[in-house]
User: What shape does this take?
Amino acid sequence: MEKLVYILYADPDARGSDLRSALVEKAAPAIRDAGGSEIRVNVNDEDVAAGTPIHKLDPPVRAMVSFWLENADDRGPCESALDAHVAGLSGYLVAESRPLIHDAPKGGRTPGMNQVTCIAKKPGLSSDEFFHIWNGDHRVVAIETQSTTGYVRNVVVRALTRGAPPWTGIVEETFPIGALTDPHIFYDASSADDYQKRLARMMASCERFLDFEPMECTHMSEYYLG
Assistant: This one.
């Protein structure tokens, strides 16, 4: 079994609810018919509209769909099912790890919000050092400084579509819905001073191994379809 992740691009003014319906009700069943399993649909819809994303691409990232397939070489029908509903897509074969497992009720919206961040390795940093920091030191910092309830690391093995941005990983972090608008909730801070300390610790950790220039960060609603 191999895990595939597709980053989906759509018009920033497109209704998130329409995109959600298309992906959940049309694309996901087609992916299942093509052999996909453990399907997860993440979409930037009205439920997370209050968040402030980091968007540099045009059209922007509006959704992410992941699933498992016996053989990634047989992905054609799955890509076609997704491509029919968006302005473009980037597909990746990934290796998944779950440092913090969250409860995702099957068939419905996962409570809170899911922050999907596409990351790249800092220039000049070796791959060994990148993964040493990301999987070791930063894992501890991320969990200790934020109100994270779920944490999924998707390490990019290779791109599956032409022109896909050369990201190193795609991160999924689940937070309480209040974290969309309140940084104190996001950083689980008990006071203004505590917030500043947590923020500084997190930023210092990120600066050690991430290239901020190609980073994309989008708030999404997660739907686990199984």
In short: The domain at 2-224 is CATH 3.30.70.100 (Alpha-Beta Plaits).
